[in-house]
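Narrative of activities, Objective 1.

The group set out to show that a structural description can be obtained from nothing but a protein's sequence at a throughput compatible with the screening campaign. Below is one input-output pair from the validation batch, recorded exactly as produced.
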Amino acid sequence: MATVLQAAVREDLRGSRLAKIRNEGNIPAVVYGKEFGNKPVSVEEVAFIKTLREQGKTGVFHLEIDGQKTDVMIYDLQYDAMKNQYIHIDFYAADMKSEMDADVPVQVTGESKGVQDGGVLQQAVYELSVRALPRDLPDSIEVEVTDLDVNDALLVKDLKAGAKFEFNNDPEEVVVSVTPPDEEPEEPMTEDGEAPELVDGDPDAEPEKSGSDEEKALEKEE
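Output recorded for this entry:
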């Protein structure tokens, strides 16, 4: 049974009304699409969070507005970390028979050989652009890194596209890599291959001035 999320049409579009909607436990939103047009709505926050957990950001579900159900997916989410709440949603009214582009999160799995040897895993891309029919969009792109050694990298072209979707990114774009561990800076050496001697153990101390005892006595008198 397809998930159905109830939505109410927003007639009053004043900014002050948005705060009231949120205080009542709802989230302001907008639904738009090529054939659908543009319609401001609001959805109940608890119901939306449940739908998001079930369907993911790329999942397609029914949004019911005034008794009419429309196939939608979440196109954009605005989240206020300070208030710990979603403050706005963009729903896309999907044409289920036409391919579309969507950003899909990258999920790194496994522990690379290079990391076990002290290397550092660098994730360069956290989302990949994918083209597919709405119902064929993946929830995430799994990137297995177990075989990556130090100085190895996985490019977009190394990932396997699904039977029903393809990548839009540059095939040569780096997704993850393993870099060498940070090296300790070497101490400066003397010509004899030994570390220079510190004055009184203080690296910032000034070296003792050279000169005769008479010159030192004159300096003290001055």
